[in-house]
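Encode chain A's predicted structure.
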Amino acid sequence: MAGTGLLAQIFIDKFIDHLPYYRQIQRYKREGVIIKSSTIDGWQKQITKLLTPLYDRLKEKILTQGYLQADESPVKVLDPLKRGKTHQGYHWVYHSPLEKALFFDYRYSRNRAGPEEVLKDFKGYLQTDGYSAYKKFGHQKDITLVGCMAHARRYFEKALDNDKTRAEHVLTEIQKLYAFERVAKENEYSHEKRHAYRLDNAQPIMEELIKYLVRECQIVLPKSPIGVAVGYSIRQWESLRAYLFDGALEIDNNQIENSIRPLAIGRKNYLFAGSHEGAKRAAMFYSFFGTCKKHEVNPYEWLKATLENIADAKMSELDNFLPQNFQKS
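Encoded structure for chain A:
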């Protein structure tokens, strides 16, 4: 019978410290404790079932905030139909900057069916990169697409060797926009004050920048690196300037990109998920632990306390167990 401390440590080691189960089994074996992989798999299934209502509640909270950042990251999954082969699935990630909470959702592919299902009732601002799967949401009356300035900036960074003069000019203007963001952050501006500050300072730069891009678009070769950078920014311009609409919005998607990094580190260590169900279970733990990190909550303490108490909790008490409410509760 596993205690809550052992269970919490196993999943912290796997999903935060990226230690595969087989390595953990070897470590326990050195201490004279024999744990089979099938036993750990059974524990994970039971805990996932126990935490599913909380996972659903976390998703519900995030989707009602009115402002979401979205991104996706590949994950290799063992394919039961092809022995020794892996399938490329995707973890779609949704971040609420206002709630400072994350929701990971595993999907079999990168097509738009996943976000369409998750976001079918969402209303508000949706911030993404320029991936085509999100384009449809910009045509919905209750959703405003917000672009990622960092993503646009990368195109011009790649174009420096191709056309240094034009690329440096755009990068300098974007740097000014980020300087305004730093001022607002360092001075802890309210959303209302940041909105007004952007309109006074960032909006004039944005207006001149789009004029420059449209003019240069007529000159540069469309398929050259600088042509690709200019073309991308022009196509995305309405969403790139949308962060000026509301002081609660961020200029880029960097917060969610940083939240996805544990997935990349994990992939290097345990290479693939053992099954599609395993990838779904992983999405749950990444959601909880990512939210813990956002709120500087000790994930071990949160999981141990949650496992000890949630079985006796009422549905109306679930919010108390969310990582963002842990220290308060």
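The first helix runs from residue 4 to 15.
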